[in-house]
Amino acid sequence: MQEWNWKRILKPIGVVLLIVCVLVTATVGGIVIANVDNIGRLVHVVQLIHNDYLENVSNAQLVEGATKGIVDILGDPYSTYMNAQENQELFQALEGKFGGVGIVLSLKDPKKLVVLRPIKNSPASKAGIQPGDVVNKINNTDTAGMDQDKAVNLMRGDPGTKVVLGLYRASTNKNYTVSLTREDITVPTVDGETLPGHPNIAYINITQFASDTGDELKETLNTMNIKKYKGIILDLRYNHGGELNAAVQVASYFVPSGPVVYIVDKQGNVDTKMAAGTYLGMPLVVLVNEESASAAEIVSGAIKDDKTGTLVGVKTFGKGIVQTIFPLDAGTSVKLTTAKYLTPKKISIHKIGIEPDVKVELGKGQQATLSPTDTNFDPQLLKAVQTLQGKFK
User: Fold this and answer.
1) Is residue 216 within 8 Å of residue 190, measured between CB atoms?
2) Residue 117 pLDDT more than 90?
3) Contact residues for 362 (Cβ-Cβ < 8 A; gap 6+)
């Protein structure tokens, strides 16, 4: 019979209690049923760490590690535990303001940290970092297998501090290193202008859906005096999404009254997000590509289902699930996938994407002309112009 050293066991018990409640208990009819084997294993591991592990580890570290492990075991790349710093940085990003170097990473290859674009006038842009560059080191830490959230957290930090990036550029087949000084990065999410060479077409580019994006779009439309144009090109290429409410606010300008998106939770409860009654009712073309994701797909899916605009480009990314941020103690939080969303026609696009009405691919090595300054348009934008002009009476 095994003998238990209760003096040694009782020391880590306090660490285990909270974890046990989450991991190994279930409430059925008000009766708590515990899996004793799992409790014993957990107590044993904590006991071993406290008494036999070479280094000292605090109870707070063990609880944080266990919390992170619970979320990581889900195998969901969109669900994550965030410590106080990561939590703060996430909310700064959603607000469009953070300390960093100004790099937006691509979703296309999750095994590599590929630069989608440097933010205009950011340290990355000034240093000559280009779309397609691969970040293979951050402060001498190899990024092989590193997830994007961790990489972003490593590159962000207090303005005035430095970060050294090792990059690879395929066009020259060379590695290079840059030392960047972090700055306050403010990211305007909406850019609106008259399309060069086409005074009757309004071009609007939305780069992400932050908390202020709906207000930014409203201000942009008013500043442009949008009704003076015959039609609109809405560019959602390389838009990785963001806030759900911001997507609904934006979609409301491009679809009439009615559902924008259905949010369906684990129990099958449906939360219907309705358009806000700000529909412009103008001829519309929406540009999408393989990196248009999440909130960008909510907007483009609503427009396609309601037939208020024509989608031009290639199939979207296919992220049709919703994450909720749950605050925890000490400034930490957990972000969990809590629901899926359906388009107005109740279509799920998760891992499927949205097919454009008019398929147009970019040629090998061609770059999308986002917010163009001249009439040298990429093939997708050129087709968008032709499609929109076909709608004019």
Assistant:
1) yes
2) no
3) 289, 368, 378, 379, 380
